[in-house]
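WARN retry 2 of 3 for item q-0093 after timeout on previous attempt; input resubmitted unchanged.
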Amino acid sequence: MNMRAFMLTRYGGLDAMELGNAPKPSPGPGEVLIQVYAAGLNPVDFKIRQGMMRAIQQYPLPIIAGCELSGVVVATGSGITHLAEGDCVFTRVDKKRLGAFADFAVVREELVAKMPSSVNFTTAAGIPLAGLTALQALRDELGVRSDQKIFISGGSGGVGTFAIQLGKWLGAHIATTASARGEALVRKLGADIVVDYTREDFDQVLHDYDGALDLIGGDALMKTFEIVKRGAKVVSIAGVPEQQTARKDLQGGPALEALFWVASWKTRRQARKYGATYRYLFMHPSGSDLSELARLIDLQKLEIVVDRIFPFAQIADAFAYLEQGHAKGKVVVQMVEQ
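OK item q-0093 returned
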């Protein structure tokens, strides 16, 4: 039996991914088969398509693309202990396997969690990757505590909208950057200070921050080191990977560590200049962390911001929109009408 699937057939531009048919998968031991109701789009999806991740992960092409989804468990393999057929779930799928952009996906049970009961499938599909990234960056890497001052660049995007709210939940004072169009959104989510990057440079108005989450990279990352206290940590998901990324996030060997050491030299030099430390984070899929996010959402501590919803048949248009870089919140495709 075949199903619809959005396939990565080669590395390149928008036309390197195409909607077609693929065999419906079956779950193995420790796996569940999920009927996909909706899937979130993320910058990592088009970075994979462009070949930017090949040094980290080589995919056997063609492969069904997509990193996050929501849906219903329709079959289980042996050894399943926490999920059952009929459960409404969401997940950040295995990084080595992908497969979210299809009518059905097989995922290991430990990567899957039950959806928040207070949201629908379309909203839930936009949670896993951005939510896990923000949670792991702020809670685990920055160790955000009450009354700290935390800077989050690019707060109106997918990760930023989660990070602002999670930072406030952890008790921090949050500053962020946004355009005039995005200012109302980030203030609504809890940002205490908003710098309009179209009118002023944040490094001219912010100082003495206890930590920072960089979501932009480039010059914005280099300026971020100037506004944090000596001894502070800057975590980025948009800069250049460093040695700890290879060891901790990717379980890579000495060759990958050496590659990242060279690639991150300029950034690490900037960090040393201002007495800061630098960490590039690749989030890790985690069903238990998703359950924590679901709990916070049902307690109304987190609001999910969805910018646009496209039908699955228009997923190419959804990517064209995402790559314009102006989405406020998440872009989602819908496989099953709700």
